[in-house]
Amino acid sequence: MNIIMRSRLWSFGFRSTIMLYFVLLIVLPIIGIYSQSFELGLQPFWDSITDPLAWKAVLLTVKLSVIAALINVFLGTMIGWVLIRYRFPGRRILNSLVDLPFALPTAVGGLMILLLLGPNSFAGGIADKLGFQIVFHEPAIIVAMVFVTFPFVIRGVQPLLEELDKSEEEASYTLGASRARTFFQVIFPSMLPGIISGAMLAFSRALAEFGAVVLVAGNIPGKTLIAAVYIFGEIESDNVQGAAAVSVMLLTLSFLILWAVNLVQSRRHGK
């Protein structure tokens, strides 16, 4: 009896600790942001999110995040395919390097992009001769977003390729289907949930990027100023309510994306 009671108490204490940790680190900060954004009423909140600079910053962030996510879909699917389906020297090293953006501080990533693509770099010099610039313009922001979100699609696709029943693929070849038809009719549908969830996570992560982008964007209001940098500027200007209002927009969008990812994954597991 004492053993049963101790087991129940331990289980209750463990669950309570986890819930307290979750509330303190996630729930309360989220409630705080929503409360701060509506602290002065609905009209100031509306004025903050409809401010031309704020709206342009949010739209620019969404646009560039979509582009970065699409690039990651294309590159991530191919890289995931190569890492699973082919064996070659250095494959394990490359596979481990996929997670490098998670390990590096994002500011380091921004500095790397600045050094590689800046005006004084080889690539930046060629771009300048061709009549366009990379750093301090939208292309640099996209590169930064692609870098920090690089692993999501790859890691979403790899487990699905590993679980794929090769007998289905072999049956398709036996029935006379070409490699392209087999890929699009047999393999790609199995990969699709991982591609979709990875793309949505990449988009959500790109929305919130600050460290890598702030070094390469130029932060020109209305042109290269993204939402995260705009929020930082509002905090520095002591406009906490305005910063919170824009944060709520990004936070709500991220919630919707994560809910969609959850839905895709639950349907995949329930299939």
Task: Describe what this molecule looks like in 3D.
This protein has 271 residues and is mainly alpha-helical. Helix content is 80%, strand content 0%. The chain has helices at residues 2-37, 42-49, 52-85, 91-97, 100-103, 106-117, 122-129, 138-148, 151-163, 166-174, 179-207, 211-216, 227-236, 240-270. Helix 2 (42-49) crosses helix 14. The longest helix has 36 residues, at 2-37. It is globular. The relative contact order is 0.14.
Number of helices: 14
- Ranges where pLDDT stays below 50 over 5 or more residues in a row are none
- From the alpha carbons, calculate the radius of gyration and give it in angstroms: 23 Å
Order of helices and strands: HHHHHHHHHHHHHH
The biggest beta sheet reads: none
Shape: globular
Overall strand count = 0
| Helix/strand class | mainly alpha
- From the N-terminal CA to the C-terminal CA, the straight-line distance is 42 Å
Q: Roughly what is the average pLDDT, rounded to an integer?
A: 84
Subunit structure: The complex is composed of two ATP-binding proteins (CysA), two transmembrane proteins (CysT and CysW) and a solute-binding protein (CysP).
Subcellular location: Cell membrane; Membrane
Membrane topology: Multi-pass membrane protein
Keywords: Cell membrane, Membrane, Molybdenum, Sulfate transport, Transmembrane, Transmembrane helix, Transport
